[in-house]
Amino acid sequence: MAAFHDMGEAIIGDLTPSDGVSKEDKHLRERLAIRFLSALNRPGNPRFAIELESLWEEFEERKTKEARLVRDIDVYERLVQAKEYELRGRGEKDLGDFFVQWEEMITTPEIKKWTKSLLHERETFWSRRKASAVIIFVLGGPGVGKGTQCARLAQDLGFQHLSVGDLLREEIHQLDSPFATFISESIQSSVIVPAQLTVNLLKAKMSASKTQGQSRFLIDGYPRSMDQAVMFEEEIQDSNSAVLLDCSDDETLRRLRIRAESSGRIDDNPDAFKKRIDTYRNESLPVVDHLRRKGSVKTVNSNGSPEDVYALLKPEVEDLIHQAEASS
């Protein structure tokens, strides 16, 4: 039944009102296309020719339970395609009216259940498009002082400071974590862990904080790759800001050597230093360009002392807060 209906559409094309074709005219064209197919088959297989027209009419008029089910699946497929269109367009076009119009046509309980789940996914997507929190990514190569500066900003401006590196290291020490060994090996090799893993850790932490009224987040050292940036936008929040702490390679290496003397971190060793800087240059800097195209990115010179850097950084972050809260 569904195949016969698709045959009609295949001949005339999948026409929509935006093509200047009314619903009635489209129905007429499909009916004539089916009759054409029936006429082609009648000389060699008259029984099939009759069945072709009969099943098409059963589908169009919803004469039976089977026809209603197949018709509802066809409508559901349109809703899925509309949702994918919204996702791929990153919310540039809201097809809410389309969903209202077609959702009402679904009558079978099974497809109603599918549709409810689909609409919930769509609502989640649109809620993430609307910024409900002030989220600022604090970016920069290893050793630029992201953690130090974030701790001061959190204290002075009411942020929760989230370090993806710390979250990953915490996961390593979770006895029941299936990812502990994998994360440890990835950090030692200066390999960026999969986006889904870091997004899940951030989502859990942020959700718990939001229930306690927190709405400002500094995310330290994230996103480090394009897939992390895109997945965060899709699963947590689309509209975010960033601060880039810019530091020379010579100063970065000097700080890393000093930190390695007392940090105890598995990635603070001479062999890892150059790898980490190269990884940052190759994978993280394109993320900065992506974030700059989507929103506000502030660059702060971080070659100076922690006090000098903070004096430059704090007003920039205050400006980002103002922008984010004014647009929410």
Architecture overview:
Strands 2-3-1-4-5 form a five-stranded parallel β-sheet, with helices on both faces. The chain contains 14 helices and five strands. α10 packs parallel to α11. The relative contact order is 0.10. It is of the alpha/beta class and 328 residues long. 65% of the residues lie in helices and 8% in strands. The model has no long low-confidence stretch (mean pLDDT 86).
Our estimate of the beta-strand percent is 5-15%
Number of helices: 14
Overall mean pLDDT: 86
Q: How far from one another are the termini?
A: 49 Å
Report the biggest beta sheet as strand number plus sense, adding barrel if it closes: 5 strands, parallel
C-alpha-based Rg, rounded = 28 Å
Q: Numbering strands along the chain, what is their spatial order in the largest sheet?
A: 2-3-1-4-5
Query: Which oligomerization state do the chains in this entry correspond to?
Result: single chain
The overall strand count is 5
Global morphology: elongated
Could you give the order of the helices and strands?
HHHHHHEHEHHHEHEHHEH
In brief:
The chain has 14 helices and 5 strands. By secondary structure, it is α/β, with parallel strands linked by helices.
What does the secondary structure layout of this molecule look like, with pairings?
Layout: H1 2-12, H2 23-41, H3 46-61, H4 65-88, H5 96-103, H6 109-129, E1 134-139, H7 146-157, E2 160-163, H8 164-172, H9 180-188, H10 195-210, E3 216-220, H11 226-235, E4 241-246, H12 249-260, H13 270-294, E5 297-301, H14 306-327
Parallel strand pairs: 1-3, 1-4, 2-3, 4-5
